[in-house]
Write a structure and sequence with these properties.
By secondary structure, the protein is mainly β. The chain is about 15% helix and about 45% strand. Strands 10, 13, 14, 16, 17 and 18 form a 6-stranded mixed sheet that branches. It has a 5-stranded mixed sheet with strand order 2-8-7-4-5, with no helix packed on it. The protein is elongated.
């Protein structure tokens, strides 16, 4: 009965945080807990930090200042060691969950730069939104992987775009605890097509209007009529 119950519901009832990731900023801490369907008396709970055994308590509290800033993982494994289940080849009496951790004031991009399109001679811009827990953030924009001189803010603008500005743009956000590179955003630049000549006064090569053709035809008829009269 118990094995059938676990097969349908799983061993874990809840976990906190309920998400698959967590950010612990500098000077802060985060408590992680799991709740199972049965009393903890028969439940064995084991925590692993970055793949290594960390503790066997029902919950664990991590402090940012005790960990190296950057990316980490926290995994919990729970197992019901009840004697009511003697054979469990598919491990229905065991469950696990892993959180992806960001420790310290490492910058996290919350809004990526978006693609942009413009016409040659017009402006274009990109921007990024970064969460760094209040820590100072520096920015460096790049085009095709090459640093753009002077582009050191959360946004980058071109006042007058040209075809050579088209390409892929990224931004690197950096704090004292680490850095992150944005997704590439594409800038498309369209060059306006010059209007065709209408054949006005000033230069040949333009197409003649129907009225001009009619005028030439009438002149030709008049010249033919005069030659006929003289003959």
């Amino acid at each position: 009965m118990l094995l059938a119950f676990y097969r349908n519901t799983g061993l874990l009832l809840a976990k906190s945080p309920s998400t698959d990731s967590a950010i612990i900023r500098g000077g802060k801490e985060q408590t992680f807990t799991v709740t199972t369907w049965v009393a903890p008396a028969t439940i064995a709970t084991t925590w692993y930090l970055d793949g290594s055994h960390y503790t066997a308590n029902q919950s664990v509290t991590l402090q940012a200042n005790s960990l190296t800033p950057g990316a980490h993982t926290l995994k919990v494994v729970v197992k019901d060691a009840t004697a009511m289940v003697r054979n469990d080849p598919k491990n229905y009496t065991q469950a696990e969950h892993t959180w992806a951790l960001t420790i310290g004031n490492v910058p996290v991009i919350t809004t990526q730069p978006g693609n942009a399109s413009t016409t040659a001679g017009q402006s274009a811009s990109f921007s990024v939104v970064v969460d760094a827990g209040g820590a100072p953030v520096s920015y460096v924009w790049k085009k095709g992987g090459v640093v753009i001189t002077g582009a050191t803010s959360a946004s980058y603008s071109l006042s007058s775009s040209s075809s050579t500005d088209a390409g892929f743009y990224t931004v690197v956000a950096t704090t004292s605890d680490g850095s992150v590179t944005s997704n590439a955003a594409t800038l498309s630049v369209t060059t306006p097509v010059a209007p065709s000549s209408s054949g006005g006064s000033g230069g040949g090569g333009g197409a003649l209007s129907p009225w001009a053709l009619l005028g030439f035809a009438l002149l030709g008829l008049g010249h033919f009529a005069r030659r006929t009269q003289r003959s």
